[in-house]
Amino acid sequence: MQEECGICGFNNDKNDSIFSCKCKNMKSEWVWDSQCTTPELCLFKDDKTIIFHPKSSNGTSVVRGTELFTSGIHYWEIRVITPLYGTDVMIGVGEKDLCLEGSECKYSSFLGADGHSCGHSYTGGIQYKGSFDYKHVKEFSNRSVVGCLLDMFHRKLYFFVNRELSGRPITLKGNAYYPMVCSTAARTGVQLIYTRSFEAKLQHFIIMENKLPREDEHHRYSSLIKVLLEDCWPLRLPNRRRISVD
């Protein structure tokens, strides 16, 4: 897992520069797509860091990732690097044909406004098909880490805030999705800090379904299984209260 610096710790309240993060982030399997964005945003740091509406905001700015997920299991984490405010800041997924044009002319909760996308709002709600679900959904804010686990085999999307499950998994209807982020607020920023994809194998679904001995029995595992569990830690998130970020 990536290491944290003092800037990025969840409990760090210092007002440090948003660009002074020195995290040793792992190499990304994908980044944000500079060719598939609305105009009002800037990409930095190898297209991993986004600043929405760098001057002022007149609507909703949206960006999608470079990777289209059609199969397998995919996990990514996004760190919030500025205070959040305004109509909405959302993290989620959208289908290939989701139209981004026109969103910059109005303030909206863009992701999940219809059945072609789904988004987790910073205010503590998950929107899909135009309806918000607030049950057990966590808010996120500056320095939060928001995770998405997309299981394309079962068409399930899980959200996490600081590696704790947030809300109920969403059953999606589409066949392919891009990771997406949107914001209505000026000078808000997020950073892609971790991406990982897994094949749709039985061993991965066993880990996701928690069909394993309790943690206090891990000493019984072979070294090979221990390495597998360590390598596949994102798949354990849906059935764990918390996994340390250190």
From TrEMBL:
Domain B30.2/SPRY: 10-199
InterPro entries (UniProt xref): B30.2/SPRY, B30.2/SPRY_sf, ConA-like_dom_sf, FBXO45-Fsn/SPSB_families, SPRY_dom
SUPFAM superfamilies cross-referenced by the UniProt entry: Concanavalin A-like lectins/glucanases (SSF49899)
Superkingdom per UniProt: Eukaryota
Signal sequence interval, chain numbering: none
PANTHER family named among the record's database cross-references: SPRY DOMAIN CONTAINING SOCS BOX PROTEIN (PTHR12245), SPRY DOMAIN-CONTAINING SOCS BOX PROTEIN 3 (PTHR12245:SF5)
Protein name, entry field: B30.2/SPRY domain-containing protein
GO biological process, one term: proteasome-mediated ubiquitin-dependent protein catabolic process
Residue ranges of coiled coil: none
Annotated GO CC locations: SCF ubiquitin ligase complex
